[in-house]
Amino acid sequence: MLHHNRMPYRRLAMLTLAAVMLVALISACGKKEEASGSKGTVIATYKGGEVIDKEFDKYTAFQTIMNPQSAMYMSIPQFKEQFIKQYIVSKVLLKDISDEDKKAADTAADSFKKQLEEARNTQPELKKHMDDSDLSVKEAVAMYHDLAAFQSYYAAKGEELKPTVKEEEIKAEYDKAPSDFNIVSVRHILIGTTDPETGAELKSDEDALNLAKEVKTKLEAGGDWNALAKEYSTDTGSKDKGGLYEKQQAKAWVAEFKDAANKQEIGKVGDPVQTQFGYHVMKVESREATPYDKLKTEDKDGLKSAVAQTKLSEFLTAEEGKLEIKVTLPAEPTPTATGSPDASPTASAPAK
């Protein structure tokens, strides 16, 4: 439960991969816009092309299907501007995707099409959302196709950059957080606030913290870890082992738990530590540093991948600079006489 699966620089990858969903939109709906005689308002220009507000609105509708939380980010002007820039870079780089990756994307898109059509037939709200946004199945499938293709390109580019990583760069990456590689044995009792499977609330923060303090008091008074873990802990991965995680790398745990495992006094029950899972009552039983020259091959490979991701980020930034991108988003809507602003996060200027 306590392990995370976030990759280094995940935010950059997410922005890049999600932004490419819009690439197919240009080719998929461009002819339709021209035929209607209403092209829309240009919101970004770059060497070789431009981005239209109507295209971006359709993309937003598609992104909302794939990730409902995206609407929240699209309401932030700075995020929207960066998103458009990432989209443009992705559009240009898509030209370098191999035929093999395009064929793989064809297969992925065919599968997505079947799922989307079935969902439209069984979920009236999805059909209404797409109809209201003037987003066709064909357009959505085209976007998904290019997303799958760019995922392959992105992964391949990262692998291409790995051989360029030097030993001193790997060591420098290790030096940023050597404690990530500490080998730690720790006991904990988790007083959960939410069910990790359903997201349902188990306890309020206040109630969970109060109970965690009670458990700490019992442990300090000589309480048995095995008995108390079985009675109170909601961590199914350790409650039947006296709350023990034995000889694990600190980097495997979520940030707050990792920080406590690396800093808490050995052999002492610490104050409750809050994470996304709830409150943890912890006792570090042992902690051993791992010097760079003792790292396992897979650890060095992970560091090498992190450096390659940084190089990939630099590559994308350089490509963005070459394109001379200029974003001109419409001004945010002003409040009406009643003080209620336009609630639409993707409201765009009317076509000229």
Write up what this structure looks like.
This is Peptidylprolyl isomerase. It is a single chain. This protein is an alpha+beta fold. It folds into two domains: 174 residues, no CATH class; 106 residues, Roll (Chitinase A, domain 3), CATH 3.10.50.40. The chain is 53% helix and 12% strand. The protein contains 13 helices and seven strands. Strands 4-3-6-5 form a four-stranded antiparallel sheet, with helices on both faces. Strand 5 and strand 6 form a beta hairpin. The radius of gyration is 25 Å and the shape is globular.
Query: From N to C, what is the helix and strand string?
Result: HHEEHHHHHHHEHHEHEEHE
Number of domains: 2
Query: Taking all residues together, what is the mean pLDDT?
Result: 84
**CA(first)-CA(last) distance:** 53 Å
Number of helices: 13
Which secondary-structure class do the elements indicate? alpha+beta
Spans of at least 5 consecutive residues with low confidence: 4-37, 335-352
Strand order of the largest sheet: 4-3-6-5
Beta-strand fraction estimate? 5-15%
Query: What gyration radius follows from the Cα positions, in whole Å?
Result: 25 Å
Portion of residues within helices? 40-55%
User: Strand count, sense and closure of the main sheet?
Assistant: 4 strands, antiparallel
Please tally the β strands and state the result: 7
Give the overall shape.
Answer: globular
